[in-house]
Amino acid sequence: xxxxxxxxxxxxxxxxxxxxxxxxxxxxxxxxxxxxxxxxxxxxxxxxxxxxxxxxxxxxxxxxxxxxxxxxxxxxxxxxxxxxxxxxxxxxxxxxxxxxxxxxxxxxxxxxxxxxxxxxxxxxxxxxxxxxxxxxxxxxxxxxxxxxxxxxxxxxxxxxxxxxxxxxxxxxxxxxxxxxxxxxxxxxxxxxxxxxxxxxxxxxxxxxxxxxxxxxxxxxxxxxxxxxxxxxxxxxxxxxxxxxxxxxxxxxxxxxxxxxxxxxxxxxxxxxxxxxxxxxxxxxxxxxxxxxxxxxxxxxxxxxxxxxxxxxxxxxxxxxxxxxxxxxxxxxx
Length: 333
Hints:
By secondary structure, the protein is α/β, with parallel strands linked by helices. Helices cover 27% and strands 26% of the residues. It has a five-stranded mixed barrel. A four-stranded mixed beta sheet has the order 14-16-18-19. Strands 2-3 form a two-stranded antiparallel sheet. Strand 18 and strand 19 (312-317) form a beta hairpin. The chain is globular, with a radius of gyration of 20 Å. The chain starts with a strand and ends with a helix.
């Protein structure tokens, strides 16, 4: 198995700290077991190494982020650098062409693509191994990892597995995949035992190369780089996962978090205050992240996040921090 970490996103919902270059996966706002600061990228690389997958890993990214990635992973993982950011389907396509033409990977090898900004426990990588095994046992085109949903979220894709009475198997067949439904649709999907999409997809390299050829898209690495703009600017979830008819589903019952907004990210911070900051005693469940050399004081403001850096200042109720992206155009203007 080859593991491709998707690391090109900008994480706009974590403005003002996360930008196109200094994206959320590079922010050292977490703590490792030794109490040292680490980023989501550094955390995942550490877990991949512990799982014995480091030598089988690649990172797909864009040129502006390449230097920072090499700094954080210390050059231990090869980079697949995209000519421009065009969402996850072109990123996966270029990675597959690279693996075949540059890395010499066999078309029969299983490729697993995984967002680098997931916050998971170590057992998640055992689940990835199970997904690889499900591909071998079923002969399906793809294996997905599903997460038992905690609530009817609108920001995730939903995997609806077929009902299977064989409790001895560690996987089920896919019935349907729906990307980012509205709340009412999500509630109906959960009632049908749907799972959140973890963002991880496993498939034989041959499958993706054949899909590109069928759509008259480049399949050789050099040609794809030269005509990268020909690839549709769309997510892998919409372009491939929603259309798949032959897939297996493996459930991960351990920890899984998508730290895409300030309310979810601050839950994993080891300290409510980073940088120069003071919280009053009644500012319960409030977080300060301050990258400026001036103090930030918060008084009588519970359940909030205050972020200050040279790009701007954010003050938000944690529950509404996911709405941040709706206002970023106003900030730019």
